[in-house]
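Backbone geometry tokens:
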Amino acid sequence: MADLFLVGWLPTSEVFLRALEDSVPKAQLAQMSRTKFGGIIILGGAIGGGEIALDRGEISIYSAAERITKAFELMRRYPELPFIFSGFSDRLSPVGISEADAFKRLVIEQGLSRDNAHYENQSRNTYENALLMKPMILVLEAKDLNNSDITPKPWLLITSASHMYRSLKVFQKQEIEVIPVPVDYQTGLRLHWEKFDLAAGMQNWNKLMHELIGLLGYWITGKI
């Protein structure tokens, strides 16, 4: 009973998950010049590609849908910026189309410009996201430097707030400068002291433990 209480009483999970989500402040893009950005990076984890997308002919978006809606918002706001969507699948043995290919279909369906579109469709985790995107970013930065003769600009990085700290550390390790654009917040500014919700609590603890284990694993293996 005590275990169920700790899982279901929301403040026990919210306090830690909120700390993780707040560990990387959100960039105030409205106060920044668009000339300061090198491009837009969108990390996978929100799109249902795979076999179902092939069978049904439709792309499904999961609970982290804000990664996609924020990407579309920034792509419309900064149409001159290149963007890279990175991700195949988080499964060890994926089948069907990759998340990157699914996102490409969504871009076409939304009528967005494909002039500056770039896709990385092999990565299965955050480390591979950064590692496999780095050569693409270097090529695009070199092209930008040839055109403007200035130093490389940081890229806008879109991912879930709870995932941003680990992502930021991985990209820093790869010497890729990014500006955090966290989305998909699961906690607010106040704790729900009176609320007991076993399903919500389990979801919060799952997200929290996923990131903590990921951070520990990446630290042990030198990825951050």
Q: What stands out?
A: The CA atoms of residues 26 and 181 lie 6 Å apart. The chain is about 50% helix and 15% strand. The domain at 25-187 is CATH 3.40.50.620 (Rossmann fold). The beta strands are 39-43, 47-48, 60-61, 83-86, 117-120, 155-160, 178-183.
